[in-house]
Amino acid sequence: MIPVTYLIATIAALLALVIVLLVGYARTRGELARLRKRWSPVLDLHAEAMRIRRDAEVAAQQLTVLRESIQAEQRKSEDLLAAHRRTAEVERQNLTVELQNRRLQWERDFSSAIAELESLHRQVGQARDHVEMQSFGLYDPVFDFETAEMYQRKLSEVVAMQKAMVKGKTAAVCGTAWSVGGSAAEGKRLAERNLKLQLRAFNGESDAIISKVKFNNVVAIAERLRKSFTQLNDLGKTVNCAISEAYLGLKLQELYLTHEHAEKRQKEKEEQLRIKEQMREEEQAQRELERAQTEALREEKRWADALEKARLELSKAGDKKRNQLEAKVAELQQKLAEAHEVTERAVSRAQLTKSGHVYIISNEGSFGRGVYKIGMTRREDPLDRVKELGDASVPFSFDVHAMIPSADAPDLECKLQQAFGHRRVNLVNQRKEFFTVSLEEIEAMVRNIHGEVEFVRTAIAEEYRKTMAVRAEHEAAAATAQKNAEEEAVRAARDKFEALRVGWYAEPVHQAVRATGT
Hints:
By secondary structure, the protein is mainly α.
């Protein structure tokens, strides 16, 4: 147990310590107040400086953050601008590629459309030809008479048979015995009137139809005739009256005879024209031969007179001129002999009325390759006939592949044309002497019929080839002009595109540029 005194002493010591501490605190506080009062301006400046420093640090931090934000925004704007520029460049390139692709596609579509149009034109032409062929058909002659007069006689017989059938009341018949008002006679008269009306209508239509027959509508006209026959018989079914099939057959024979008679007359006219042309050719050739004969005789007489004169001079000449005159006489004798040979040839040829030349010529520019004309001329100069053929009837002159002299030129020409008859370009008009055949075949046939003949295998076709060269130059110039025009259009479009491309910035890019001042 602690003594009381010790406790009191301890408490007293503590109280003393407390009092000392309180006194020291009071003194320190007073000193601090005095110092604060003395140094208060300095303390205020320090506090202000500390505040300013803190504000400056805060402002510096905010400025750093703002600078970083601005730099980030600037980088973002630059990236966005670069992205837009790349996008615009890609779009430009894409547009350029698309423009080129569209142009190529347009060219392909245009070429395809042109090809399709040409194909359609060909198809339409083929269809039109097919329709025309169907409209008149391929007519096979029903009769085969040699002359137009024989066709006319047969036509008269057919018309007479028609009249006989009408008169004999077999052209149209009624299969029912009608009675009118109980009278069989009245019924018969009614049936006869109906038959007469049917025949009159059919004959009128037949005459009108047959009058329109041409080379290109025979089959169609025949069908119209049968259709008229059927329609009129259908109208007569109610009274059981009909035109007979035999009478229709005679009308069809009249149609065919009318057509074939006109065709035969046309062929006879063409044959007469051919004969007249051949006669004119022969007359002209004969005149040329007579003129050549006269000229040869005149030339022979001239040399004979000159020889006689030289011989007379030789007989009177002295020794000095004798050698010179003898040489002149020999020369004149040679000239006279040559002139005599020419005269003999002219006389012998004039006596051979069938002598002449068979020519093989072609005209590639006018008729194409593989088409040759086989003809005959009795002209003194056979090339005159070739020049005559190429003067105005064709756009280009003919090339001569062979000129074959023959004592019987018409026979040689006929044999060659018969050999290639199935190869004629015109299978209807025999006066057209063009054949689709190779030159080798013609040469082989001439060698077989006539003997060896020199052929010119290459067709010069000078005018045609020069024309093709000029046309090719024109087409090349036109193609170049078109290409230049297209390139100019593309350049204009590219320049316009480049002009429009300037300033192609999206609105966000404009805003970023305005915000950054760049």
